[in-house]
Amino acid sequence: MELESVRREYKRAELSETDIEKQPILLFEKWMKEALASNPNDATSVALTTIGMDGFPQSRIVLLKNYSDEGFVFFTNYHSQKGRAIENDARVGMHFFWPELERQVRISGLAKKTNKDVSDEYFHSRPFDSQVAAAISGQSTEVANRAFLENKFQELKNELHGKYPERPKNWGGYLVKPVKFEFWQGRENRLHDRIVFEKESDTWEIKRLAP
Ligand SMILES: Cc1cc2nc3c(=O)[nH]c(=O)nc-3n(C[C@H](O)[C@H](O)[C@H](O)COP(=O)(O)O)c2cc1C
């Protein structure tokens, strides 16, 4: 199949200045609810982009676990590549793509670690095996083979005798405080709607961009 012939029209909805919320988090909430209704399993997947130690931007998918006026929360290993990148430069991008709704949202923000209680609470809400896996995985470090991981996983399970592991100190949440949002709604003939909210002191400046 020729990739050049892959093409679709976007006709599902529109995003107009007259009916948007003045607070971007309210528009995000509306879109997230609609995304969850249309695709409950993957709506919270978000591409997180960090500025790597080598200067290259690097993206990977994480799962959004909470959002509020304060920002957007995901959980990870603080010693992973993304964790080290964030410690070096707190500027990150978050990019949601909801194809069923013909929508994307881009967020730029500053990431900082959530407090320990937030990390503990979420860590212990995860299934037992996921907690064990997080405890034995030095995320983003090189491993010799699959058996190495499976053995470590089984060893810790044996040691724990059904007790739950402690949250590793290097595993926890990040809160991304947004400074910019871009909401994109696909439209007919590629004349898409793009509305940007940019933080200016305490208010959000709103503008429309050409597609
Ligand atoms: C659907 C999906 C959800 C994921 N959720 C997370 C997550 O919430 N936290 C996380 O650390 N990694 C998650 N990952 C794995 C990351 O994409 C990535 O492989 C890992 O965090 C290591 O990234 P890094 O080496 O850039 O730090 C997820 C991957 C996929 C495909």
Tell me what you see in this structure.
22% of the residues are buried. The model has no long low-confidence stretch (mean pLDDT 96). Strands 1, 2, 3, 4, 5, 6, 7, 8 and 9 form a nine-stranded antiparallel β-sheet that branches. Helices cover 27% and strands 34% of the residues. It has 211 residues and is α+β, with helices and mostly antiparallel strands. The two termini are 28 Å apart. It has one domain (8-120, 173-208): Pnp Oxidase, Chain A (Roll). The radius of gyration is 20 Å and the shape is globular. It has helices at residues 24-38, 81-88, 116-125, 128-136, 146-160; strands at 45-51, 57-63, 66-68, 71-77, 91-98, 103-113, 171-185, 193-200, 203-208.
Give a quick summary of the entry:
The chain is an alpha+beta fold and 211 residues long.
Number of helices: 5
Strand content: 25-35%
The helix-and-strand class reads: alpha+beta
Residue windows where pLDDT falls under 50 for at least 5 positions: none
Shape: globular
CATH architecture: Roll
Query: What's the CATH class, please?
Result: Mainly Beta
CATH superfamily: Electron Transport, Fmn-binding Protein, Chain A
Total domain units: 1
Average residue pLDDT: 96
Percent of residues in helical segments?
25-40%
Bound molecules: flavin mononucleotide
Radius of gyration: 20 Å
- N-to-C span: 28 Å
Counting DSSP E segments of at least 2 residues, the number of strands comes to 9
Named CATH topology? Pnp Oxidase, Chain A
The major pleated sheet works out as: 9 strands, antiparallel
What's the helix-strand series?
A: HEEEEHEEHHHEEE
